UniProtKB/TrEMBL annotation:
MATH domain mapped to chain residues: 19-158, 179-304
InterPro entries: MATH/TRAF_dom, TRAF-like
PANTHER family: TRAF-LIKE FAMILY PROTEIN, TRAF-LIKE FAMILY PROTEIN-RELATED
Entry-linked CDD domains: MATH (cd00121)
Protein name, per record: TNF receptor-associated factor-like protein
Pfam families the record matches: MATH_2
PROSITE patterns listed in its UniProt record: MATH
Length: 316
């Protein structure tokens, strides 16, 4: 059935909160010692439930001698074999174990924990720690573990890990987009009358985007600046905790091909911010001077360098 082990590193600390899984209060420790001489020098608690399985706390008052626990209090937990049959067809259970010994002098629980999650199965049903506390330290009333004529308290937290990974997220950054550029010619730019124009939607990195252009600027830049935004389309409704990152260059092309005006955007888009761009992208004076071709067309180009993708097990 297995035995207590102490092969991996352990952590020790103090905490005020009592054990969450099980508490074993003993009214006379010396009588416990005497009684366990007739039960393989150990005391097994009643069954308790944790994580969908049944367990017992095992205390060796004088240590688990056969496994090198001599001179120490040894503590283990044992999984009930019926739990494997009653709960699921699962043949292994993984659990994190924290053992407790109450100290009345400190009014806290001495806590000792194996840092590794432990595997329980039909061949290894008992796990724990051989050397929880030195026996001599424990039985000395001045240290606070034994009090009021022999009372003491042991405990354990058994934190059962789920059988598989239940919550996960994969964040990837696509840097090799098949067609990273989107071009948008706006003809007869000087005579455009609407406040805002929206490009056709285009796909980039698995998302749908549009370019939004204000030929006379937004209200903050009216009459002096060209305003441009790169937006996720309305149908790309992001869930409350969903987001996507884009890195892109937005350019107004020089008809002569030597002096394109460009700015870079690096932005996480989320539900509260589907749009990002510039109120003051390019001054209209400079635009009219340099960036309209002979047919009064303004050519806008967006080149994506990176678009992120997030896959989650579930988004709340």
């Amino acid at each position: 059935m297995g035995s207590c082990s102490e092969a991996s590193p352990i952590m020790k600390n103090w905490r005020e909160h009592p054990p969450s899984s099980y508490s074993l209060k003993i009214q006379n420790f010396s009588q416990l010692e005497n009684s366990t001489a007739f039960s393989h020098h150990k005391y097994q608690s009643c069954l308790f439930s944790s994580g969908g399985y049944n367990w017992r706390l095992i205390v060796y008052p004088k240590g688990n001698i056969k496994d090198n626990g001599n001179g120490f209090i040894s503590m283990c937990v044992k999984i009930d074999s019926k739990s494997f049959m009653e709960s699921t067809p699962q043949t292994e259970v993984f659990a994190e174990l924290r053992f407790f010994v109450y100290n009345k002098k400190e009014n806290k629980y001495f806590t000792i924990q194996d840092v590794e999650v432990k595997r329980f199965n039909a061949l290894k049903m008992v796990r724990g720690l051989l050397q929880v506390l030195p026996y001599d330290t424990f039985i000395n009333p001045e240290n606070g573990y034994i009090f009021e004529g022999g009372e003491c308290e042991f405990g354990v937290d058994v934190i059962v890990a789920p059988p598989g990974l239940t919550n996960w997220e994969i964040l990837s950054f696509n840097e090799k987009l098949p067609r990273p550029k989107f071009s948008w010619p706006l003809k007869n730019f000087s005579t455009l009358k609407e406040d805002v124009y929206t490009s056709n939607r285009f796909s980039m990195g698995g998302k749908q985007w549009v370019v939004e252009l204000y030929p006379k600027g937004t209200s903050e830049a009216a009459g002096k600046w060209l305003s441009i935004y790169v937006n996720l389309v309305d149908s790309e409704t992001l869930k409350p905790d969903e987001k996507t990152f884009k890195q892109a260059h937005v350019r107004v092309l020089d008809p002569l091909g030597s002096k394109h005006f460009a700015s870079q955007t690096n932005r996480w888009h989320k539900e509260s911010c589907m749009s990002w761009g510039w109120d003051e992208f390019l001054s209209l004076a400079e635009l009219r001077k340099t960036y309209l071709d002979k047919e009064d067309t303004l050519n806008v180009e967006v080149e994506f360098n990176v678009v992120s993708s997030i896959k989650c097990s579930s988004i709340i």
